[in-house]
Amino acid sequence: MANESDYWSKTRKEMREEDNLSLFKNWRTVRSIPIYKDNEFPMTYPVEVEYMLRRRHPEEIDRWKQILKEPFLGHTDASYKKARLSFFDGTVSTSWTLKSAHHILTFEGLSGKSIKEYDQIVEFGAGIGETARLILDLGFEGDYFILDLPETGRISNYYLQGKAKICDRLGDIPQGKNTLFIGTWSLSEVPEDYRNEVVAYFRNADFLIIFQRNIFGYDNYDYFTNVFPHKSNTDLTIRPIPWHRGAGGNFYVYASGKKTPSDGRNVVKPEYVLPPISEHRIRVALHLVSRIPHAIWRRRHRLIAAR
Ligand SMILES: C[S@@+](CC[C@H](N)C(=O)[O-])C[C@H]1O[C@@H](n2cnc3c(N)ncnc32)[C@H](O)[C@@H]1O
Fold it and tell me: Per the CATH hierarchy, to which homologous superfamily does domain 6-275 belong?
């Protein structure tokens, strides 16, 4: 049985034809999958990330602010300028980076654990590697493995400058360590036989998954709520992502391994707070209203400059 969908077989071929790695954030394939975009819910991710960050300790907030500036690598001057946004007391970032930050902060909110506490993180289908980049820049000291198709692994290897171990064979990754498995919109895109093989390989680990309800004919809601917990031997927490409405709706899964080694490091952190889901529209509306004076000032400034 093939371990990839027809979509991915076709996309791999196109990716092989892209040659200028230094501009990968502008590749047609990268933008159409997408594994990079310059406007990924730019009104929502900044608000949600700021909500979670504001409740952290000051030194942690400082660290986050430093790493939220997306690296230029893969951009042109124009695409970098277009992607940039500022939020949270003028912190410069991009919506793509803030989406990855949202994954990490949501994981910590759901689990009560720091993402840095694992000996090993395995990311399945990491795209360009922005989530990995943030985790490594946060100070994660364990081994970071990326298991991906060679065509995408080539990009993350370039972007991460060799800081993660990129592989395309499951057997290259050690088993039995205190492992966090991450698969955002990736494990849910491969055929069930292959995902079962991968999940069984990391049985008893902790998992952070994002899945879309229906894609390529897979019924992911049924798989992740009924099949996955048994295969992985985990307890599940599901959290919807209400603004990602495509493919029948999108969901975070935090799955806690029933046999995750408890060595005293995993102390639940009360400051890891999640925003109430039902109020996300109110938060965005308040954010927009708070930006009106700034928008008026900028418009006036532009008009005066144009005279
Ligand atoms: C939609 S992208 C998501 C990328 C990233 N996780 C994100 O959230 O932006 C799907 C990812 O799964 C990877 N992928 C697809 N088929 C795969 C396979 N058979 N084995 C490993 N990775 C695969 C792709 O290369 C890509 O990195």
Answer: Vaccinia Virus protein VP39 (3.40.50.150)
